[in-house]
Write a structure and sequence with these properties.
About 40% of the residues lie in helices and about 20% in strands. The chain is α+β, with helices and mostly antiparallel strands and about 230 residues long. It has two domains: about 160 residues, Phosphatidylinositol 3-kinase Catalytic Subunit, Chain A, domain 1 (Ubiquitin-like (UB roll)); about 45 residues. The strands form two sheets. Strands 1, 2, 5, 6, 7 and 8 form a six-stranded mixed β-sheet that branches. Strands 3-4 form a two-stranded antiparallel ribbon. The longest helix is centred in the last third of the chain and has 40 residues. The radius of gyration is 24 Å and the shape is elongated. It is found in: Cytoplasm, Cytoskeleton. Keywords: Apoptosis, Coiled coil, Cytoplasm, Cytoskeleton, Metal-binding, Microtubule, Phosphoprotein, Zinc, Zinc-finger. One of its GO terms (cellular component) is microtubule.
């Protein structure tokens, strides 16, 4: 909470650009939109729009256990279902999961991360995650970690609506070394169980692979029947 509060207190002003320039960029952006996900300019010079975020998380996330899915009533009343139980469980989010967010030009990367975690009812510390921009250049896919104070919608506006040019990805906040102190004891125990299962599955895959190779080799020797060459 203290870390989040510090980020909010240091929240910078949006990029300095005149309302007329914003209007022109939004008109140019909307002209390229092939769906209904348009950007809208507000009277105060801010603007709203949509971004899509791909969730590419390799580690499991922690969510409340044994609670019902969020209803429309919960969403409208901003009911936090995670506060209704102390029970926790961990699972892997699908690697192809995509979440669409309606945000403002004043919404920061930090707020986008927190919004995503809230929508998926993930109770992990937001500092465990980072938002990346994915770009394609010369047949290569490039990732760049975004600062917590960056404005994703402004990047979307500059890049245009084509997600092949720019897309957003939520990944683990890799810092070279995993900060295990940020995880609770149940989370660490659950990771050990998952790693143990993955290890056993990998061993079985390798064993099956070489068992098939052994069978084919034995069959070839049998068919050869001692024939020369």
């Amino acid at each position: 909470q203290n870390a989040t509060k510090t980020v909010e207190e240091e929240k910078p002003e949006p990029p300095t650009i005149t309302v007329q320039e914003i209007k022109q960029k939004i008109e140019k952006y909307n002209a390229k939109v092939t769906n209904c996900l348009l950007m809208k300019l507000n009277d105060d010079g801010t603007y709203t729009g949509f971004i899509k975020v791909h969730l590419k998380l390799r580690r499991p996330v922690t969510v409340p256990a044994g609670i019902r899915p969020q209803s429309i009533y919960d969403a409208l009343k901003e009911v936090n279902l995670a506060d209704m139980t102390d029970k926790r469980t961990s699972f892997y989010l699908p690697l192809d999961a995509i979440k669409q967010l309606h945000i403002s030009s004043t919404t920061t990367v930090s707020e986008v991360i927190q919004g995503l975690l809230k929508k998926f009812m993930v109770v992990d510390n937001p500092q465990k995650f980072a938002l990346f921009k994915e770009m394609r250049k010369d047949g290569q896919v490039l990732f760049q970690k975004l600062p917590l104070t960056e404005y994703p919608l402004y990047l979307r506006l500059l890049a245009g609506p084509d997600t092949d040019v720019l897309s957003f990805v939520l990944k683990e906040n890799e810092t070279g070394e995993v900060e295990w102190d940020a995880f609770s004891i149940p989370e660490l125990q659950n990771f050990l169980m998952i790693l143990d299962k993955e290890e056993k599955d990998k061993i079985q895959q390798v064993q099956r692979k070489y068992e098939k190779f052994k069978q084919r080799l034995q069959q070839t020797l049998k068919e050869a029947g001692g024939k020369p060459g």
